[in-house]
Amino acid sequence: MALSKLEKRIRIKRRVRGKISGSSELPRLSVYKSNKEIYAQLIDDNSGKTLASASSREKGVDANGTKSEVSAAVGKAIAAKAIAAGIENIVFDRNGFVYHGRIKALADGAREGGLKF
Fold first, then answer.
1. Count of other CB atoms within 10 angstroms of residue 39
2. pLDDT tens, 64-93?
């Protein structure tokens, strides 16, 4: 029997998370997208803490435009928060989602904001 879309994403997520993890010097930028919103977190996996977060639901993020434009704005917002916290280099975790569309727009926005990965 074929796997559902969610089961495929979770399988990919587990495989990727076995290879990458974040630390306080090199945190993991984890991305989650729903049908309407997009969320990003900088995570230190050693201590299990979230260092910074941004989402399309925040007031500081411009939520006008297409979903890809909103994703790029979230990427710039997380980059600004990371730079303010003294973080420049990160590890990108696409969370099992295909690196295309909104995920790519968020990553490009984070790069424009000054993050390196």
1. 19
2. 889 999 999 999 999 999 999 999 999 999
Q: Which CATH class is domain 22-113?
A: alpha beta
Residue 30 has which token pair?
Answer: 């984890």
> What's the chain's Rg over C-alpha atoms?
14
At 1, the pLDDT band (50, 70, 90 cuts) reads confident
**Identity (one letter) of the amino acid at 90?**
I
Contact 113, 80 (CB under 8 A): yes
Domain boundaries, given as residue ranges, for the chain? 22-113
Tell me whether residue 60 is exposed, middle or buried, using C-beta atoms within 10 angstroms of its C-beta: 0 to 12, 13 to 18, 19 or more. Answer: exposed
The answer, yes or no, to whether residue 22 has pLDDT greater than 90, is: no
